[in-house]
Amino acid sequence: MSNYAERLRRLATNDPRAMTDERGDSAQPVSLDPRTLALVRLASLIAVGGSEPSFGEHADAALDAGASTNEIVDVLMGITSIVGLPRVVSAAPRLAQALGVDVESFLD
Predict the structure, then answer these.
(1) Which of 62-70's residues contact partners 24+ apart within 8 Å by CB, and which partners?
(2) How confident is the model at residue 12 (pLDDT cuts 50, 70, 90)?
(3) What CATH number does residue 53 fall under?
(4) Among 23, 64, 67, 71, fewest CB within 10 Å belongs to which?
């Protein structure tokens, strides 16, 4: 069985080893570069309606990993058809604030 199939099997069967590597350490994605992983995590945060402090943490992580502010906003645009416009509209001010944009200026 290939590595990806084994990892899927462990996740699908709730195998306790699903989230650990061969040494028993916490498993990390093996094929995603840090920038992509940071953007995926940001998309996930938007999808679940994460808290405001989390947006700052994950936006900073994405920027530190080499993502641009345009790419971060593109995450919002890219997931709209999946999570729905209301979720994206709700996340936009939190993401704007995390990126240092004056959210109050939107309301004037």
Answers:
(1) 62/35, 62/38, 64/38, 65/33, 65/34, 65/35, 65/37, 65/38, 66/34, 66/35, 67/35, 67/38, 67/39, 69/99
(2) very high
(3) 1.20.1290.10
(4) 23
